[in-house]
Amino acid sequence: MTIETSTYISELNTAYPEAGSSFSEGDDHLRKLKANIKATFPNFTAIACTPSSVEFNYLSGVTSAIQTQFTAKAPLASPTFTGTVVLPSTTSIGTVSATEIGYLDNVTSAIQTQIDAKAPTASPTLTGTPAAPTATPGTNTTQLATTAFVIAQGLSSALPGQAGNAGKYVRTDGATATWQDPFASAPLTGTPTAPTAAGGTNTTQIATTAFVTGAVGAYATNAIGTYIFARASSPNTAPGDTIAGSSLQVASISSVPALQTDSGAYSLSGTWRCMGHGNIANILATLWLRIS
């Protein structure tokens, strides 16, 4: 009979002992079998091994020490996790659903603290300087009214109709407000000023005191546009007659009804138009206008 060479149970050959082997070799097989069993289970002690074959089969697929793996796991009751805990998207905790847990995404600080800092929609008590969008004047809804809306609405309500009054200002007599054209019969007070027109301007432009003073000052004696009392050298003159200034002699008013001529020669220049009646025989003078 052949005795196989083996150390562990898996190395035993089930073909031995062969039929016809002598009894003397039977004990060798028995000793080999016991040696292989002990070599295969070196840590088995006098304590009985009670796991069933089913329980032993639970070891199938284990790749490392079971206790080491158990130690690395958290208990079901009050587990303490470390590092970054990732839960499945379907995880629920108690009555909190996975969807509700998902609402925590992007929360940056204590939720209750943030909630407590917000105002309720029903009868809120606001503090600080609350702000809101300003409604268009004339809005008549439940929309909040800002200070800007109140001022604009109050001004709009106080104004008379605005259509066709662009560029005008509001004037009141203390009881009624009306639109006033700043250029139509404006009731100016105080000391109004205006640009001074250039000398010689003859338009509808406002004449300032400076323009008038300059214009009047320009009309010196014997200037075009000035008047004089004078007597003509012609026998008789009538309104509209023209005569050279050299034919006029300046006159003055005396105590007698007639206009008396001053002493002196006929010395005026330019052309003059008679504005009244003159008579040299009666030494009558009249008003003359220089026209050129």
Characterization of this structure:
- The protein is α+β, with helices and mostly antiparallel strands and 292 residues long.
- The chain is built from seven helices and ten strands.
- The protein has helices spanning 23-40, 53-57, 66-71, 98-102, 111-116, 147-158, 209-218, and strands spanning 169-172, 177-180, 227-232, 236-237, 242-244, 248-253, 259-261, 271-274, 278-279, 286-290.
- Strands 5-8-10-3-6-7 form a six-stranded antiparallel β-sheet, with no helix packed on it.
- The chain is rod-shaped.
Kindly report how far apart the N and C termini lie: 171 Å
Please count the beta strands (DSSP E, at least 2 residues each): 10
Please compute the radius of gyration using only Cα atoms.
65 Å
What integer is the average pLDDT? 81
SSE order: HHHHHHEEHEEEEEEEE
Tell me, what's the shape? Answer: rod-shaped
Q: What would you call the structural class?
A: alpha+beta
Ranges with pLDDT <50 over ≥5 residues?
A: 255-264
Q: What share of residues is helical?
A: 10-25%
Major beta sheet summary: 6 strands, antiparallel
- How are strands sequenced across the largest beta sheet? 5-8-10-3-6-7
The multimeric state of the shown protein is single chain
How much of the sequence lies in strands comes to 5-15%
Number of helices: 7
